[in-house]
Design brief:
Blueprint (H helix, E strand, L loop, with lengths): L2 E2 L20 H11 L24 E2 L17 H32 L5 H23 L11 H11 L2 H13 L5 E8 L4 E8 L10 E7 L6 H4 L3 H8 L5 H14 L1
Helix pairs in contact: 2-3
């Protein structure tokens, strides 16, 4: 059974996957093996990977390791929050994704799609949570903070007026997310622009075909043990651990493809 591991999200390390975008990572791993270097002769019929006896294959998602220790982002984010957030909450989204895929697999085998709406909803929610968190961990670093540099910094200035204005817009969007959700900086290829967006829950109000560059989780489980109901303090502190090198690399990879 092929695994779909989250390091695929590191666009700057897996250049061949640039064009698929982080928002489409659910199909990304499965497409990568088939789409690159496959079928040099266009007349050749591709071999089917479907077992005709009804044993359809599915990938299995796994929890990625953090690129730092649980206590590495203190004092911005406490060790206990990081441990619970990664090992319990993120693991739950991975498990939920795999469970939804197993139910979908059984539907395909039995040719009985009653209840598919629920399965598809569960898959969208859990897989989006898995993807969001996988980017979130890499967007942060113990050596983060400060301001971005280089071409990405200039792009922020061109589109938002200054880095500080971008930071203010992003922070206010994060603080104003209704109930649980995320704030994201997206690269939107149709208009060739950077957009700050709010994503409710894990997957609602997302920008289609846009590539997430920088995300902040504002679900209560991401901050409540440390900041209680002071979401604004959490948002303000989070800037101290933003890994601008990671964000800039994601932007470069997305822009180069489009």
């Amino acid at each position: 059974m092929a695994r779909k591991d989250v390091p695929l999200l590191e666009l700057h390390r897996r250049r061949v996957l640039q064009g698929l975008g982080l928002a489409g990572v659910g199909a990304l791993a499965g497409a990568s093996a088939q789409g690159v270097g496959a079928n040099e002769n266009e007349d050749d019929e591709p071999e089917s990977d479907v077992d005709l006896d009804g044993s359809y294959g599915t990938g299995e998602y796994t929890l990625p390791d953090l690129p730092y220790a649980y206590d590495a982002l203190e004092p911005a984010i406490s060790e206990r929050i990081m441990e619970l957030h990664h090992s319990a909450h993120h693991q739950g989204y991975v498990d939920g994704t795999n469970d939804a895929l197993e139910r979908l697999q059984e539907m395909r085998r039995s040719d009985d799609f009653e209840g598919i709406k629920r399965v598809k909803r569960d898959l969208s929610f859990n897989l989006s949570g898995h993807v969001n968190h996988s980017v979130f961990w890499r967007n942060m670093s113990p050596d983060g903070g400060g301001d971005p540099e280089g071409e990405f910094c200039q792009r922020l200035i061109e589109e938002f007026g200054s880095v500080e204005r971008f930071r203010e817009e992003f922070s206010e969007a994060a603080k104003a997310v209704e109930s649980n959700g995320w704030a994201w900086l997206f690269y939107e290829p149709v208009g060739d622009q950077l957009l700050v967006g709010q994503v409710e829950s894990q997957n609602r109000l997302a920008h289609q075909d846009a590539t997430p560059l920088l995300g902040l989780d504002v679900w209560e489980h991401a901050y409540y043990l440390q900041y209680e109901n002071e979401r604004g303090e959490y948002v303000d502190s989070w800037w101290d651990v933003v890994d601008w090198d990671d964000v800039a690399a994601r932007f470069e990879a997305a822009e180069e493809y489009w």
